[in-house]
Amino acid sequence: MTRTVRSTCPYCGTGCGVLLTPTDTGLDVKGDPDHPANFGRLCSKGSALGETVGLGSRLMSPQVDGADSDWDSALQLVADKFSDTLAEHGPDSVAFYLSGQLLTEDYYVANKLIKGFMGSANVDTNSRLCMASTVAGHKRAFGTDTVPQTYEDIEEADLVVLVGSNLAWCHPVLYQRLLAAREKHGTKIVVIDPRRTATCDAADLHLPLASGSDVALFNHLLTQLYENGALDAEYLANVNGFDEALHTAFCSDVSVTGLDPRDIKTFCDLFTRTEKTVTLFSQGVNQSSSGADKVNAILNCHLATGRIGKPGCGPLSITGQPNAMGGREVGGLANMLACHLDLENAEHRAAVRGFWNAPAMPEAAGLKAVDMFRAVGTGQIKALWIIHTNPAVSMPDAEAVRATIKGCDFVVVSDVTGATDTARLADVLLPATAWAEKDGSVTNTDRTISRQRAVLPAPGHARPDWDQLAEVGRRMGWKDAFDFISPAEIFREYAALSGIAAGFDRDFDISGLAELSDEGYAGLEPARWPISARRQGGRFFADGQFFHADGKAKMLAVSYRAPEAKTGPRYPFRLNTGRVRDQWHTMTRTALSPRLSAHLAEPFVEIHPTDARQLEIKSNDLVRLRSPQGQSILRARITDAVQTGSLFAPIHWTGETAPAARICDTIASVVDPVSGQPETKAAVVSATKY
Ligand code: SF4
């Protein structure tokens, strides 16, 4: 009998619902008409999912030192090595590096094992490369990492401002929802992005600002909102820091944006007179050495006007990965604790420690991604477990990261394939179940928790990540704490912990699901948190109540800072990086679909015609980019979508698909001092014909 299962797409943070039906040749995939993220829509990547479930590249059994092994030997080796390393060198000598691709239940067990039982906060995730600046900005403004808005607000807004977001390619279904709303009631669209992307096709105004100058633009907007009487004095009574933020904004120089003053005025006038304004922001804001300040400059404008938490009105960060939000919620970052509690708050720590009955708990933040791999390189970290991510290609200064992983005493990699740059460096490779074989939950960009359901059998000896982690926990001596037998059981424990967190006046609360039966979990419908007796779904902050100790929000006084790396005679070009429409991350899944690979088949670099002429580079020539960190060789695409002096290259190609084209080899490991997020959109390079 044909069985159709409701699940979620494993790509972007939109979190679309899918209907999955196994067929003789694989999997039929359709959009779920009842899912509140997409109402049946899918983009090219989601609709090609059925083409990516073949087993050709799958890892089928554990491997130790490159040879086939069995689960008992491999997991005992992992448990023994981590136990010995902890005993000999202490908790700072171990680390986990996780992924926004993990399900919430996997993330919860990983975080519990390393923070509560190994006693180390050295757990970070590729979400650090994705939206850590937003987390920092939210916490500084609101007291918690709270997304105030919902997808419906995009449809209710009269003005949507997209900052550093190529929504048309990176979150296509949200873009379709925006265009459908514009068709109905004429929503105005402004795109703020150094590059003219596909998203600009529908824009009423495109502001091609200088790379990294967003703070100057939003500071100027704040002054214009003030001068034109658009501030909400009543709302500002619940906001600290207004005077200082405004004073700093007045000291800001908007000319650094390089924008035409008439365009700046058009934008400011539009924002000033449009009450129902949503500002969507994404990686162009986050992946910057001033990312957290950019986020706060945007939040300042919404707080000052009281345009937040209301229908059609507020800031909305668009996350890159399918479960980046779930990872934030379980505290899967080096500076966080589960359920939006703070690692460096003694009462919060004591509450979690008591709930877990944990023997150890770190008292300070652990190492964030860039510092974590540096510590691997110096030998401080001697045992590293990397789960569902490919840092050997995706980290900045990736060539150096490959060398540090190679030199680490003991590296475990859990993944669905052994054919990645990172997996090839592992001492122990553990075969994990893939998207269509996994059961658990994810949270999308607007706080909607959805179930991901298994529809295909696990091939070979593949096991779920939570199961691998729990087994290692048991083998390290913590049998009761890791006696999980199902994702439902993990979810209930997590939901119960959120009830304790809510007692500290935290936003994240799903305690209403703590008593969910196995059947209830199996049939759980998509639902936006909070889900508790106290509060259900909806928006945050329209009531002016925030999560700082005094209940008020905070506006931050932020000043423009140029990108860290400076162009000059040796490295005259500013290099921007990003995604293409039909590929995902390092292509381990999307490259399996011929249809997706046909869109843009080769790694490329976009060059402005004026620059190309000067460099005597023609369309389709090979171009060598060099930076102080390394080099990348790419096919030239000559286009005025990039500005003169700027280049753009996609992030996807790896040692497996195009070794010479690994773009992160050219990116410096410069980070935002507040969020620790690397500046992956503003490297400096030279460009020459190859
Ligand atoms: Fe999947 Fe994102 Fe496309 Fe939706 S918009 S189908 S979540 S990739």
TrEMBL record:
All copies of domain 4Fe-4S Mo/W bis-MGD-type, residue ranges: 2-57
Question: Which cofactors are required for activity?
Answer: Mo-bis(molybdopterin guanine dinucleotide); [4Fe-4S] cluster
Q: Which GO terms describe its biological process?
A: cellular respiration; nitrate assimilation
Q: What GO molecular-function term can you cite, just one?
A: oxidoreductase activity
Coiled-coil regions, chain positions: none
* UniProt name for this protein: Nitrate reductase
Which top EC class applies here? oxidoreductase
Q: Which domain of life is it from?
A: Bacteria
**Organism expressing this protein natively:** Pelagimonas varians
Give from-to of the shown chain within the full protein: 1 to 690 of 871
Q: What is its EC number?
A: 1.7.99.4
Q: Name one GO cellular component term.
A: membrane
Give the record's family classification.
Belongs to the prokaryotic molybdopterin-containing oxidoreductase family. NasA/NapA/NarB subfamily.
**UniProt keywords, alphabetically:** 4Fe-4S, Iron, Iron-sulfur, Metal-binding, Molybdenum, Nitrate assimilation, Oxidoreductase
Taxonomic classification: Bacteria, Pseudomonadati, Pseudomonadota, Alphaproteobacteria, Rhodobacterales
